[in-house]
Write a structure and sequence with these properties.
Distance between the termini: 58 Å
Number of strands: 23
Largest sheet: 8 strands, parallel, barrel
CATH class of the largest domain: Alpha Beta
Number of helices: 17
Strand content: 15-25%
Strand order of the largest sheet: 1-4-5-6-7-9-13-14
Structural class: alpha/beta
Radius of gyration: 25 Å
CATH topology of the largest domain: TIM Barrel
Mean pLDDT: 88
Oligomer: single chain
């Protein structure tokens, strides 16, 4: 096989709720910063999932498209020798004159796709609709997004409309460019359950393949979904799809730590926000990694299952973990390693995608309220893109170069303290052995708070008191809990000047959020003296402020 490629992607969702549209490209500021593309190129990307979205480009029926934004950016990507994988709908429902349950949704997207293909006839890779199954669930089964329906029939109609829209789009695109390739993305996980919920788990594990099965023309009278479609009066629609399939050229596999699920009928063992159910049963629904021991699923299982089912080239098209920096590094490294291991076993994995290059807004509430920022490969907390340690890692992975020391430890999803439900006790993680440590210098009481954060995050560390005269061997970084001006080493330092923190105010040792933010910055290689006062936290500290407001 050719070498495993590194792809990238910006979180570009334009989703619709009752309050209107939420545009991630505007929220991130990428809409106004074409210079971001040069930052992306520095990562060594071969391709990038990039939006030319229907809602943003052709907003009114009968009107003309506005190509200004897309022209400049696709032209620049071409100059940078980065292949665009053009997306037309990303968790959206189209412009205001249509929606996922509209009979005209598919033909409308097909018309728009033809206009885009005529404009950019050199583009060969396309994702007309991102994650149609996920979008149908959130919009028409759970009611989170427009049109806020909650019924089985509405869900399947929303999915079929997106499948038909993908088929219409690819027909229009291939009339212009017969070599165009469909890279069809979908979230892929597995559902596990207690025996009482076996039927629900089996249904979920069948439904997860629906997007790819439908596009491939597999849903016929011999398919397990056939009876559902017949019962809902949708038989003629799936017959038409099966007679004129549009199989993906590449399976775009998205997998998150939340993708694998566990269903449990013993709801009393879980907090209320995890409770849900179907028409017959009430149950808890949580991440499988929080319950199952040993852990199941993950990238390796998703890749193997997709390959066994389709024997079609696969790309991991989203790799992101909304967590502390070292956990982001561990998740990215694991995705790359799992892709390489799968290739060694004969699975045709073409690429791994550094997703959410600029971070994302509001995904902690599934885009239903608030715009809390979550950093990605670049951190926008200061108002301009700042490379995090993820940028260096993604640059290093294709070249087989050394990774940051903190990436060597197992991620939280592989440690005993990940278990939250069903275990007799939560096991405290311990700092991993091996690898260069972080050196913590200062008063023992203050150091113990930082050490506790390191233990929780599985960051190897050593503690030295200022007067001890001892030092760690070759630390990768230093946190000083006092003011030391005479150090001339090149090791990144993070200095907390305790004397500027008034008693009774937020202090470094009173607020875990500040310690976590400090550790993230140090892992990013951002040395300096950072002052924590009543109202100011320097650089990327906005989240720490939210967690620990001034007292």
């Amino acid at each position: 096989m050719s070498p495993l490629e590194l792809w990238g992607g910006t979180e570009c969702t334009v989703n619709r709720t009752r309050e209107g549209y939420r545009d991630q490209t505007i929220l991130s500021g990428h809409h106004h910063r074409i210079s971001d593309l040069d930052l992306f190129a520095d990562l060594g990307l071969s391709a990038i999932r990039y939006p030319v979205l229907w809602e943003r480009t052709l907003s009114a029926p009968g009107g003309g498209p506005d190509w200004t934004w897309a022209d400049a950016r696709l032209s620049r990507l071409r100059e940078l020798d980065i292949r665009p994988i053009v997306g037309l709908v990303h968790h959206g429902s189209g412009p205001r004159h249509t929606h996922l349950l509209d009979e005209g949704f598919a033909s409308g997207l097909g018309h728009f796709a033809g206009l885009v293909a005529e404009r950019y006839d050199w583009v060969e890779e396309w994702t007309p609709v991102n994650e149609p199954l996920t979008t149908a669930r959130f919009s028409a089964l759970y009611g989170h997004w427009y049109p806020h329906e909650r019924s089985e029939r509405a869900f399947w109609i929303a999915l079929l409309n997106q499948i038909d829209a993908t088929r219409a789009a690819m027909r229009a695109i291939r009339r212009i460019n017969p070599a165009a390739r469909l890279i069809q993305t979908e979230d892929l996980g597995r559902t596990y359950a207690t025996p009482e919920l076996t039927a629900q788990a089996e249904h979920d594990n069948l439904r997860r393949w629906a997007s790819w099965d439908l596009l491939g023309g597999r849903v016929d009278r011999h398919h397990s979904l056939w009876e559902i479609m017949v019962r809902l009066g949708l038989e003629d629609r799936i017959r038409r799809i099966a007679d004129d399939p549009c199989p993906p050229d590449v399976i775009g596999l998205n997998h998150y730590l939340t993708s694998d699920r566990f269903l449990d009928h013993r709801t009393e063992q879980y907090p209320p926000h995890l409770h849900g159910g179907n028409d017959q049963l009430y149950f808890a629904d949580t991440e499988a990694v929080r319950v199952l021991d040993p852990p199941q699923g993950g990238f390796a299982n998703a890749l193997r299952e997709a390959w066994d089912r389709y024997a079609t080239p696969i790309a991991i098209t989203e790799v992101h973990n909304g967590s502390t920096r070292e956990e982001q590094l561990r998740w990215a490294a694991e995705a790359w390693d799992m892709a390489q291991a799968a290739r060694d076993k004969g699975i045709d994995v073409r690429a791994v995608t550094a997703w959410s290059l600029l971070g994302s807004y509001g995904w902690n509430t599934l885009l239903t309220g608030g715009d809390r920022y979550e950093p990605g490969v670049f951190d926008l907390s200061s108002g301009v893109p700042r490379p995090t340690a993820l940028a260096a890692l993604w640059q290093a992975l294709p070249r087989g170069e050394l990774r940051h020391d903190v990436a060597a430890a197992p991620g939280w999803w592989r440690r005993p303290d990940r278990i939250l439900y069903g275990a007799p006790a939560v096991v405290q993680a311990s700092a991993p052995a091996g690898g260069r440590p972080l050196l913590i210098v200062g008063d023992p009481d203050d150091c113990s708070i930082v050490a506790q954060a390191c233990t929780r995050r599985a960051i190897n560390y050593v503690v030295n008191e200022p007067s001890s005269g001892s030092a760690a061997t070759d630390p990768w970084g230093v946190i000083e809990l006092f003011n030391r001006r005479d150090d001339t080493s090149n090791t990144p330092h993070f200095t907390i000047k305790a004397e500027i923190i008034p008693i009774g105010r937020v202090s470094s040792v009173q607020c875990p959020g500040i310690i976590d933010a400090a550790l993230d910055l140090l892992i990013d290689g951002a040395p300096g003296t950072w002052r924590f006062g009543q109202d100011t936290l320097t650089l990327a500290m906005s989240q720490a402020h939210e967690q620990c407001p001034p007292q």
